[in-house]
Amino acid sequence: MKGMVINMSKVFVIGGGPSGMLAAIVAARNGHKVEIFEKNEKLGKKLYITGKGRCNITNACDADTFFSNVVSNSKFLYRAFHDFNSFDLIDFLQQLGLPVKTERGNRVFPESDKSSDVINALKQELIRLKVKVNYKSEVSDLLINDGSFCGLKLSKDNREYIADSLIVATGGLSYPTTGSTGDGYEFAKRMGHTITSLNPSLVPIHVREEYVKELMGLSLKNIEINISSGKKRVYNDFGELLFTHFGVSGPVILSASSYIIPYLNSDKELELSIDLKPALTQEQLDNRILRDFEEAKNKHFKNSLDRLLPNKLIDVIIRLSEIDPEKQVNSITREERLRLVGLLKHLTFHITRLSGYNQAVITKGGINVKEVNPSTMESKIINNVYFVGEVLDLDALTGGFNLQIAWSTAYLAGNSII
Fold it and tell me: Percentage of the chain surpassing pLDDT 90?
């Protein structure tokens, strides 16, 4: 981190989420006088619900793994991640007195499993550094003079607040009840920035098939999904899936949602195919079913699948297989059996849409990164304005990667103000 600056400047931060708090801390440690303007009554409102309240802070992975999990504009993040990676963040938080732990998939959580402890650690450091936090302070306008930022106005009093630099950490559009209502995009547009197409991302997927309602609540582990548009494969992955009353969710589906957005409005229908037994080839699965049928040869078909499938799935699979449920197992034909194998390897749904921003972990799209300096996070259009976190056109898969984008860009911005 840079040493103390000789001429202390005044820095405003719009947004008191993770990127806003970290940027404010870094700028204040560098000797600047910092104020945060937060429209909510408290800091870190969205961070509080992250990871179902546990807060998946980051992912303790190497650089290659991190960049392979960034979906949009990963090259833009090279400098930011180099300057402040996940291990730097872990050290930073532990120095603030927050112990952390690493779980499956290198996901990092506070040891207490409480997101509030992450917020409190950052908040105490803001207090120590005498960063002023203005709560219930919605910014209505920015003051620009001769191509440089010079201040802002608040909705509540329309007064002009003067400062030397601005960090925009307003987040995106996901979870709008936490205050993420796209303010930063509006500010950026007024300054002449381009906003790329905005979409909810890391969201559940809706499907056309009505019978999905019968599967609601069923969680499947170690399955493989394939999503295709016509003959083109759009996405493929292994993992965990959860059926809902309208479609599918779970980690593997949330990640898929990031990739299928460009194909949603095309003429070709998007198909989701689930392989319920990816560890077995068609032939191996057929042999497995033959063994099960041999052991249950006097049973009806409807009573023969309990060793192969979870109970909630059996009725649906029987219906889709078009095999008579009352048929004795020993009279099922080879053709019928192979049809069952094909169904278990390719349980197919037709995607209709994604869920909205109220269920989205992040926003896909944002301020065009070509208009932002990747070495500083400063706007290339307006001097002394810096953009950090979700407001930028940057997004990644689940597992702590999106929060790391927020931390890394915030650190770089806070450290670049002179």
Answer: 91
Domain boundaries, the chain: 10-199+365-416, 204-355
Structure tokens at 360: 């989205």
Q: What's the pLDDT tens digit per position in 274-312?
A: 999 999 999 999 999 999 999 988 899 999 999 999 999
Confidence bin at 6 (pLDDT 50/70/90): very low
- Contact 251/242 with Cβ under 8 angstroms? no
3-state SS class at 316? helix
Which architecture, in CATH terms, is 204-355?
A: Orthogonal Bundle (1.10)
3-state helix, strand, coil in the chain (%, to 5): 40, 25, 35
Give dist(CA 385, CA 361) in Å, integer.
26
Contacts of 51 (CB under 8 A, 6+ apart): 109, 115
CA distance 135 to 85: 30
- Residue 14 pairs with which residues in a beta bridge? 37, 168
The third-level CATH classification (topology) of the domain covering 10-199+365-416 is: FAD/NAD(P)-binding domain (3.50.50)
Q: Is the pLDDT of residue 238 over 80?
A: yes
Asked if 118 and 55 count as a contact pair (C-beta separation under 8 A), the reply is yes
Q: How many DSSP H helices and E strands does the chain contain?
A: 12, 21
Mean pLDDT value across residues 200-227: 97
Q: How many CB atoms are closer than 10 A to CB 213?
A: 12
46 phi/psi in degrees, rounded to 5: -75, -35
Task: Check residue 76 and report its DSSP letter.
Answer: G
- Global pTM? 0.91
Assess whether the region 10-199+365-416 and the region 204-355 belong to the same CATH fold.
Answer: no
The H or E element containing residue 117 is helix 115-128
